[in-house]
Specification:
Blueprint: E1 2-6, E2 9-23, E3 26-39, E4 45-56, E5 61-67, E6 75-76, E7 81-90, E8 94-105, E9 111-122
Antiparallel strand pairs: 1-2, 2-3, 3-7, 4-5, 4-6, 4-8, 8-9
Length: 128
């Protein structure tokens, strides 16, 4: 598990390899990830949007921006957490992701970024 804390918000990431399949005449590698967002600060916060950079070993980089996570904009009170699972497809068996969440502090009404640590994605057969 990979973790990082930004301004009292702890991000923990677990990854899994889900398998391979052909799509549009290309081999694709499916990966899953589970993220826990834990509020260790004294203020309630809300996740408003996300930004991802997805890298694969073939030097492809995909930027993804969107509202919330999996259709939700969770409010996380002090001492509470929000966990969700998602996934991505790569065209190589090795890659990585990193990014940030845009959050709102309900006490100060200020917006701030919480960084998602870089985490590796790899098919077990690709590593010795």
């Amino acid at each position: 598990m990979i973790t990082q804390i930004t301004k009292g918000i702890k991000i923990s990431v677990e990854t899994s390899f889900e398998g391979t399949f052909f799509k549009n005449y290309k081999m694709h590698f499916a990966f899953g990830y589970k993220i826990t967002i834990e509020n260790q600060s004294k203020d309630s916060v809300q996740l408003s949007s996300r930004h991802w950079q997805v890298f694969d070993a073939l030097n492809n980089v995909e930027m993804i921006d969107g509202e919330g996570v999996i259709g939700k904009k969770p409010v996380i009170k002090p001492g509470e957490s929000h966990t969700y699972s998602s996934g991505c497809l790569l065209t190589s068996p090795i890659g990585a992701m990193r990014g940030h969440y845009n959050m709102i502090n309900f006490t100060s009404t200020r917006r701030f970024r919480v960084f998602i640590p870089t985490f590796k994605l790899y098919a077990p057969f690709a590593l010795n």
